[in-house]
Amino acid sequence: MKKTLLAEFTAREGAQDEVARLIGEYARKVRQEEGNILFDVYTKEAAPRAFWIFEVYRDEEAFKAHLHAPYGSPFNAALVPLIEEDASVLTFLNPLTTHS
């Protein structure tokens, strides 16, 4: 089953451009991961310092490989002082199954 999540964080005042640069570089690397299906970065229209990243991985194994990628820890270490939260807030999602 695919592993789908939403990662959210808010750039500190004045840090939005640096956060955008960091997440842009990180996104390019993640999108090259064999098990990554989608890694889309958004800002909230009404609050442009709020970043939302929609991530989809092939399965749990691919997600675990993503977590152990060598560029993940340096990215998070650079991001944390630039955001309001202690870390990205992760929400794991399940598809809605409908029956007709």
Automatic annotation (TrEMBL):
Residues 3-92 form the ABM domain. One of its GO terms (molecular function) is catalytic activity. PROSITE patterns: ABM. It holds the Pfam family ABM. SUPFAM superfamilies: Dimeric alpha+beta barrel (SSF54909). InterPro entries: ABM_dom, AI-2_Isomerase_LsrG, Dimeric_a/b-barrel. This is ABM domain-containing protein.
